[in-house]
Design brief:
The chain is of the alpha+beta class and about 375 residues long. It is built from twelve helices and ten strands. The chain has three domains: about 110 residues, Butyryl-Coa Dehydrogenase, subunit A, domain 1 (Orthogonal Bundle), CATH 1.10.540; about 110 residues, Butyryl-CoA Dehydrogenase, subunit A, domain 2 (Beta Barrel); about 150 residues, Butyryl-CoA Dehydrogenase, subunit A, domain 3, CATH 1.20.140. The longest helix has 30 residues. The protein starts with 5 loop residues before the first helix and ends with a helix.
């Protein structure tokens, strides 16, 4: 873990207090109803978290990657849907900070500074998930607007977000060369929400299909230039694998260990707490080792990004390592947490079964772990 600034320590403590007092009491109800928690959006907004990456003049603090990791880790440990809201919103705003022109920044940041707007990123399509460069959603310029046609699927935050960064093919160019990025607002004519998915985990974090039928997006909402979409996705959107999925998995894993440790100290069998049995001790030790290794990797990469590391291929590979390793650790830790709790771990009365289901999604979202291993191996073989 890299040394934290005084401000970062204060932010982490604030998130922990906020989580204990206002977020944790909502988790069980969200799990039961699977309803999107608009009240949590308000809580995050009231505490300035939805605008954290923005410049100070718009109510933000120019949060860097390390700070984002701290915030998302703490939120996901307490209330994963809150972490999901943060990730989707900050990735949209981060892309605008890095790639938006002055008019786009002034227009959107002013809106965000005045109200609690949330965002999502739209990449996957029914026939193009891991093979994102093969996407078929198209955008054709018609005067001052682009006409978008196509379907995006499995979009986290779909149906509730105010802003979407949508990637579509503008051509000319083959594969990644012909992809552009657009900021699409929820009330855009021709844009509608399709199927809402029923997921095994991360309840309260909606995932939906986005349908574009001659949707008219203002030319002013094109990010950078035509054909720059892949660059934006790789250099900006890709970073959410660290402070997004990777650190979400870390927060979930840590909470699972906390529950397993507490239970093991209290559960008595054969006349003593099960924490005194070596079989349980070894499980807890392995869980802690995996979590600390994942945390070290994530925050090391965050520090590299914050320091301005210029070797993009190296960063890309290490981001893939972090996402892959942390989510695999989360799956292992949560599964073992269920085992430590035994029969109770399998019941919904205890939170570890929920955490196990939440962890599984992290191995798939933002590029499956098989894809992350391809990225890492390609870097090793070509560098």
């Amino acid at each position: 873990m890299v040394p934290l600034s005084e401000e970062q320590e204060m932010i982490r403590e604030m998130i922990r207090k906020l989580g204990a007092e206002k977020l944790a009491p909502r988790v069980e109800e969200i799990e039961e109803t699977d309803e999107f928690p608009w009240d949590i959006v308000e809580i995050l907004g009231e505490n300035g978290l939805l605008r954290i990456v923005l410049p100070e003049e718009y109510g933000g603090i120019n949060a860097n990657t390390t700070t984002l990791c701290l915030v998302v880790e703490e939120l996901c440990g307490t209330c994963p849907p809150a972490g999901g809201i943060m990730v989707g919103t900050q990735v949209v705003l981060s892309i605008l900070v890095a790639r938006g022109n002055e008019e786009q920044k002034e227009r959107i940041f002013t809106e965000v500074s005045k109200s609690n707007k949330i965002g999502a990123i739209a990449i996957s399509e029914p026939n193009h998930g891991s093979f994102a460069a093969g996407m078929q959603t198209k955008a054709v310029l018609d005067g001052d607007t682009y006409i978008l046609n196509g379907t995006k699927c499995f979009i986290s935050g779909g149906g509730v977000s105010d802003y979407y960064v949508v990637f579509a093919r503008t051509g000319p160019g083959e594969m990644a060369k012909g992809i552009s990025a657009f900021l699409v607002e929820k009330d855009t004519p021709g844009f509608k929400i399709g199927k809402k998915e029923k997921k095994m985990g991360m309840r309260g974090s909606p995932m939906a299909e986005l349908i574009f039928e001659d949707a008219r997006v203002p030319k002013a909402n094109l990010l950078l230039n035509e054909g720059d979409g892949w660059k934006i996705l790789m250099e900006d959107g890709n970073m959410m694998r660290v402070w997004g999925t990777g650190v979400m998995a870390l927060g979930i894993a840590q909470k699972a260990l906390d529950h397993a440790l507490e239970y093991a100290k209290e559960r008595v069998q054969f006349g003593k707490p099960i924490a005194r049995f070596q079989a349980i001790q070894f499980k807890l030790a392995d869980m802690a080792i995996g979590i600390e290794a994942a945390r070290s990797l994530i925050y090391r990469i965050a520090a590299m990004i914050d320091s301005g590391e210029s070797n993009f291929k190296k960063i890309e590979a290490m981001v893939a390592m972090a996402k892959c390793f942390a989510s695999d650790v989360a799956m292992q830790v949560t599964t073992e947490a269920v085992q430590v709790l035994g029969g109770y771990g399998y019941m919904k009365d205890y939170p570890v079964e929920r955490l196990m289901r939440d962890a599984k999604g992290a191995q798939i979202a933002d590029g499956t772990n098989e894809i992350q291993r391809i990225i890492v191996s390609r870097y090793l073989l070509l560098s």
